[in-house]
Amino acid sequence: MKKQLYRLKQQADQRVGRAEKTDLLTEDLQHVDKTVEKIKHACQTTSKKLQACMQNKEGESERSRKKKLNQLLLGQGMVESSAVLGEGSIFGNVLMTSGEAQTTIASELAICESEIDESVLAPVNKLLEIDLPSIANNKKKLNKARLDMDSCKTRWNNAVKESQRASSNNKQDAVTKANALQSEYEDNTLLFHQLQDALATEMFTFVAGERSYAENVMKLLEAQRRYHKAAYEALEKCLPAVRETINDSMFRPVFGCPLHDHLHVLKREIAMVLEECVLFILDHAMDAEGLFRLAGSASKIKKLKAAFDAGVACVEEYSYEIHVVTGVLKLYLRELPDPILVKSLYDEWIAASKIKDRDQRLQSLWTLVEKLPSENKVNLKYLICFLAKLAENSEVNKMTPSNIAIVVGPNMLWNDNDGGVSIADTGNISIIVESLIEHSNWFFPEGCEFKRHQLSDEQIDAISNRFSQREGEQSPEPLQHSISGGLFSEVSKKLGWNKDGADITQANTTSNTNTAGSQATSSAAIGYYNPLAAQYDPDLDALYDSPPVPPKPPSSNTGGGDDSMEFSRTMSTSSVGSNSEESNLSTPATPTHRRTPSGNLPKRPAPPPPKGRPQTPGSPKTSSSPSLYPKLPSPPDHPAPPPPKPKLSALAKTTNIVDTLEKTE
């Protein structure tokens, strides 16, 4: 207690300058002390920030760490969501693969955090919790020893002065007191220097361990490198599988997708939207007036487009809205990244259309057709043959080759320079498309067969898996509304369902007991008026009040004369664009070429091949657009002019003469 009072008095005297103050550390030790403080600050900052990066508390086991990691929770959530979506979902498959990768990353992160905890945080915490507090404690002891030494020195000096001023009677006591204080001062001085040496030793030892502190940081980097390398390997293994799943999936948006990619993924030759729309028009609306010219409902066009992109489109529900189907077809052609006639050939197409001579112009157009990529050429042939077939019925649908070219042409060719089709080139593009339609037999002599693409077993399994229930039981009802056009019949045949999505055995039993119901189903399959459509389009209600179409009387005139043509016009006028069973059953199949009023097909000479295209001798003449679907009879008309006969070069003429002489010999 007495020492404490002396210390307080000494501190007060030192503050006001009445007492001498000994330096706590030498000049060298002061520099070392500053270094210790800097290292202390760096360790505290690093430890605090590093612990903030850790997702678990310090000292936990690796297993308990892994359970609390967000990456593991993310991976488990992905795997559970994948099980809900099912194997047929591309999103579900990607979630499954990604979830496994996240689980692997979580395991590696738990290992990394354990290594960091043992190799980095533990040594740093030892410095902060043991070494640095020991230095601070020794510094406090040294400070107390300094106060004791300075206080004792002050009292000793005062005792010496008093002994000098004391009288002879008290001088001996004053000298004895001064000697005692001198001895105490020497002891305190010795203790001060001992504590100062101990503090210096501890500070030097702390500073000397700076290399080990740097090695701890290196261990941190090594642990992070091992973690990131393992995570990188897990992602490198996961990404190709995810990319392959996405690229090989047949379920993807079709609008805006490059034609080559779309055909490659679906393993087909004709684009799905083009095929489904064309087949639907051939079946239901070849006599509809203003095809491709009249606009359909914008909202329903967007709906059908979105349904195609989602893979759940069914054009059958648009039987009384045929202009929606044609609008979607034009929209698909317009949204192709590269037009079907290829934008790189834009200037050549325009230059060819400006040629005045018809034969030379057609020859140039044929050369450009041959330059097209194979997938573009096949789809162009399909589209042009369909448009030519549509133009054959122009007296009913009012769509001549010229009219078709005006409304369809801008969707088949454009460039990027003018932001699309230049107004000055619109007429030239119409000339190109009109020439292709008028001379489709010459451009595509092999013709085109309009039939639906057959799904492979793999594609059918993918469709059924996509719309199957979670337990693995296949659910036909959503599948029936998920396949474009008539593809549902193929899938249902594969899976053993009827057209209503029920089991075939049950359907047969039901059909035996309820004949009327089965007849209604069959008529609905051929084409029926959807009563739900009346909720959105009240104008269609008038169709219920229209008189039924009378059945076609048997005709003995096999030549297809004026009576049959008049009946065809009456039928098409009474139900334009209808999808009824009577119109389909009463529509006779019409050959590709028009019939003359006498009923005989016009004999058209086979056109010579254009320059550079060989012609196989004796090759059979094929129609421009043979079809398996019935057509309305064409009105009597004059036969179309023969295709152009390009002039043969001198070399070609010589070659033909030599071939003729060889055959004669």
UniProtKB/TrEMBL annotation:
Domain Rho-GAP: start-end pairs: 257-444
Gene3D superfamilies: Arfaptin homology (AH) domain/BAR domain, Rho GTPase activation protein
Gene Ontology CC terms: cytoplasm
SUPFAM superfamilies attached to this UniProt entry: BAR/IMD domain-like, GTPase activation domain, GAP
Annotated spans, Disordered: 539-652
Biased composition (Low complexity): 568-586, 613-631
Protein name: Uncharacterized protein
